[in-house]
Sequence to fold (165 residues):
Amino acid sequence: MAAAEGRLDWAVRLLTASEVLREHVSCIVAPREREAFDKAVERMRSGLGAQAFAREWEAGLRRTVAEAVGLSHEVAQMQSAVEGAPGGRQQGMAPRTRTRHPAGLSDREVEVLRLVATGSTNRDIADSLVISPHTVARHVSSIFAKIGAANRAEAATYAAHHGLV
Fold:
C-alpha cells in the first residue's frame, strides 16, 4: 500500500521489516511469490534511486525484531490517525471502508469464503490471493468456526444464503 501511495521510503522500510521478521522465524519467500517480491523490490529501487534504496535497505536490515514489529505498529497507528483525521484521509490515499459481514467475518475471510463457495481448493485460493496455503487453511478454519460450518459444502450454502456469492 505504501508503494502504491508513492511512499517508497516507507515501502522499503516495511519490506525490510518483513525480511527481519522472516529471518527471525526462519521463513523464506515462497518460490511462487519470489517473482512478485523481486519485481516489487526493483520498482522501489527504480523509484527511489539506487543509493537511496540501498541506504534504506541496509538500515532496515539492521533493525532488531522488536524494532521491526514496532515499525508495523507505527504504520498501523499512522493509518488509523489518517482515517480518523478531519477530511478523512491524506491526498492520494484510498479510503478504507470497513464492511460489516455476517458472523463477524473479516473482509479477507469473505474473499476466501467466496472462493471456497466456487469450489476452489486451498492451493487455488492461495494462488489467487497470493498467500500461502497454510494461511488459507487458517482462514478456512476460522470461517468454519464463525459460521458453524462443518465442511466446504455447508460454507458454500452459508455464503449463498447470506448473499456473499
About this structure: The chain has eight helices and no strands. The longest helix spans residues 65-84.
